[in-house]
Amino acid sequence: MPVKDSLETAERAIRAIVESGYTLTVYDDFSTPENAKQLDVLRKELGIEVVHIAEHTDHPSPNYRWVLMDARQKCIANGEDLIIIESDVIVRPETIGKLIVEGQKPRAGMVAAVTTDEQGAINFPYEYARKIKADGVCKKRFSFCCTLLTNKLLQAYDFQQLDPKKSWYDVPISHMSRHLGFDNILQISNPVVHIPHSSRPWKQLKYTNPLRYYWRKLTKGLDKI
């Protein structure tokens, strides 16, 4: 789980995973010193692993490429799949188990849980799935909101090939998974609550003031996909 401040939402997301009975590695991507300390408090309380990225690189946030490369290396070393759950996503007790079961299919590359709001309506980034009625192979782009990347995919695709000039990698990796012959499976029956962009509030401009959002994105070189 990459974390960038927004500790109230992140703590809720962290506790949901731990209460489901799973271990968790949190990647602190240059949160404020106060929030970084709070993550260490949660580490002691909940038994999670916390990696402070600032101890490993001075590259400014976001550091998703670094996180992906480090997590991939650990998973390959242990023969494990990689499950990415972002800090604005709240899982259910059964969420992770369902991802794991689906990921055991021979051709599975990625398995994603569809995202919803608190009322259960499918929301960003899976608006396109509102017309999809059942779980199945999906050829549209996936997000890393709550997604399993199988060990087979991790072995087939070295994340060092990811463009370091970009900020986010869910789209290129979902495309590469299909290119390599894997199936990307979207689970409509396994929804998770998504509270979009809680760690980067400026991205809410995409919905409230699109012109300002795209101006900021272009002039400051932000949010490169």
Concise description?
With 225 residues, the chain is of the alpha/beta class.
Describe the overall structure.
By secondary structure, the protein is α/β, with parallel strands linked by helices. Helices cover 36% and strands 19% of the residues. The chain has helices spanning 7-19, 33-46, 64-78, 95-103, 151-156, 170-179, 205-208, 210-220; strands at 2-3, 25-28, 49-52, 82-85, 89-90, 108-116, 136-137, 146-149, 183-194. The strands form two sheets. Strands 4, 5, 6, 7, 8 and 9 form a six-stranded mixed β-sheet that branches. Strands 1-2-3 form a three-stranded parallel β-sheet, with helices on one face. Helix 1 (7-19) packs parallel to helix 2 (33-46). The protein starts with a strand and ends in a 5-residue tail after the last helix.
Shape: globular
Q: Can you give the helix content as a percent range?
A: 25-40%
Number of helices, where a helix is a run of at least 4 consecutive DSSP H or I residues: 8
> Radius of gyration in whole Å, from Cα?
17 Å
Largest sheet: 6 strands, mixed
**Overall strand count:** 9
What is the string of helix and strand elements?
Answer: EHEHEHEEHEEEHHEHH
Parts with pLDDT < 50 across at least 5 consecutive residues: none
Question: What number is the mean pLDDT?
Answer: 92
Amount of beta strand: 15-25%
SS-based class: alpha/beta
Distance between the termini: 19 Å
Please render the helix and strand layout as text.
Layout: E1 2-3, H1 7-19, E2 25-28, H2 33-46, E3 49-52, H3 64-78, E4 82-85, E5 89-90, H4 95-103, E6 108-116, E7 136-137, E8 146-149, H5 151-156, H6 170-179, E9 183-194, H7 205-208, H8 210-220
Parallel strand pairs: 1-2, 2-3, 6-9
Antiparallel strand pairs: 4-8, 5-9, 6-8, 7-9
Helix pairs in contact: 1-2
